[in-house]
Task: inverse folding
């Protein structure tokens, strides 16, 4: 597939459309000969993108501005790495405060490596994907232990660290060390799908898009990566494409077609399986809440929870932890990546001495507990928020 796509990107298109794989075609593949210039996709114009970035770069707490970069200021790999891990699957707006809090508590990789894991998990609560927080801590330890506190300076070496995969390593290497490597995230997928009017879901042409982007990466690789991120976040947004002010508009096929929002083509939706269970919120006469730790492995490992049942396809009968006057408080629905969870919420007042293994937390202290969003929703359903 790749060798069929690259000639398109290099302007070597011939009337051989029928030779393209049916799984990867461009929107303008028609029986009628397409009109110029739609049949002649250009590489991304990195110069235009950088010129736009020089004027419009977002001001972000982990970023070195293009002007400062030109003046010789180097990005701090610790801050770039932290921001990239936090930004996975969430937005800049959601991350900013977490980033500022982390960097005020732990200004260097040494500080983070020396922090207790519990504290890191607690500060992470609300960002979701807690495996990422554990990897974050393990990565800081590895950088200190194995690299003297200095992050490796290329994408291949960065990938040897815990929790740093292909995307994060490319982002750090490009932003911090100007490695000329394509940095392709979900925002960029959308921009490129529109630019090339990609007629199949992005996941079916990921390698081709990466190769196309790679061919365009200039020497100012870090600024280019961040410029493309900004473009995807502000100009070529999911529900709005501001093509009139976009530096890519002259060669963008989707804008020429007049309806860029039809891209990227959506994959057929897979049904998300449903799991069901019960959660038991116990308070003592003083209003303290009984909490416990989840197992050290698996979903939400090591986080704090209230006692709850297994989560199964069919709702089990509630197996109350203690005999008490249990009251049904409704249902909490929570969407995980791979399933939808429906928890029935029960609450009761119980004597404190009858439990072991967990701990009692005062209601005012619940905000400091490492409770993931799911169990905060459970407590809210029981009237404890
Ligand atoms: S011209 Fe429009 S559709 Fe094309 S990349 Fe720019 S904003 Fe997106």
Result:
């Amino acid at each position: 597939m790749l060798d069929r796509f690259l000639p398109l990107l290099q302007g070597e298109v011939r009337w051989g459309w029928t030779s393209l794989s049916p799984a990867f075609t461009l929107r303008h593949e028609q029986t009628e000969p397409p009109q110029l210039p739609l049949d002649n996709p250009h590489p991304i114009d990195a110069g235009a993108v950088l010129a736009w970035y020089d004027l419009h770069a977002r001001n972000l707490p982990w970023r070195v501005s293009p002007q400062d970069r030109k003046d010789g200021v180097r990005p701090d790999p610790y801050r770039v790495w932290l921001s990239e891990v936090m930004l996975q699957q969430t937005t800049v707006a959601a991350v900013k405060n977490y980033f500022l809090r982390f960097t005020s508590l732990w200004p260097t990789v040494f500080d983070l490596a020396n922090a207790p894991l519990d504290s890191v998990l607690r500060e992470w609560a609300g960002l979701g994907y807690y495996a990422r927080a554990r990897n974050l801590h393990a990565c800081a330890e590895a950088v200190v232990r194995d690299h003297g506190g200095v992050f490796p300076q290329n994408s291949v070496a960065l990938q040897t660290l815990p929790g740093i995969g292909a995307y994060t390593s490319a982002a750090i290497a490009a932003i911090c060390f100007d490695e000329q490597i394509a940095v392709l995230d979900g925002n960029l997928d959308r921009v490129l799908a529109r630019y090339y009017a990609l007629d199949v879901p992005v996941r079916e042409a990921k390698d081709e898009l990466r190769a196309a982007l790679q061919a365009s990466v200039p020497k100012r690789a870090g600024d280019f990566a961040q410029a493309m991120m900004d473009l995807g976040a502000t100009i070529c947004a999911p529900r709005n494409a501001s093509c009139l002010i976009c530096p890519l508009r002259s060669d963008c096929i989707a804008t020429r077609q007049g309806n860029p929002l039809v891209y990227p083509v959506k994959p057929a939706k897979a049904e998300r399986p449903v799991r069901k269970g019960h959660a038991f919120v116990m308070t003592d006469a003083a209003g303290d809440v009984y909490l416990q730790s989840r197992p050290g492995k698996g979903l939400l490992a090591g986080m704090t929870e209230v006692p709850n049942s297994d989560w199964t396809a069919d709702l089990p009968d509630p197996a109350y932890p203690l005999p008490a006057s249990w009251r049904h408080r409704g249902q909490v629905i929570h969407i995980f990546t791979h399933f939808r969870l429906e928890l029935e919420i029960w609450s009761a007042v119980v004597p404190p001495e009858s439990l072991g293994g967990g701990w009692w937390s005062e209601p005012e202290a619940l905000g400091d507990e490492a409770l993931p969003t799911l169990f905060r929703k459970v407590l809210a359903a029981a009237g404890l928020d």
Remarks:
- Residues 191, 194-195, 235-236, 241-243, 246, 248-249, 252, 254-255, 260 surround iron/sulfur cluster (CB under 6 Å).
- Confidence is low (pLDDT under 50) at residues 1-40.
- The chain is about 40% helix and 10% strand.
- The radius of gyration is 25 Å.
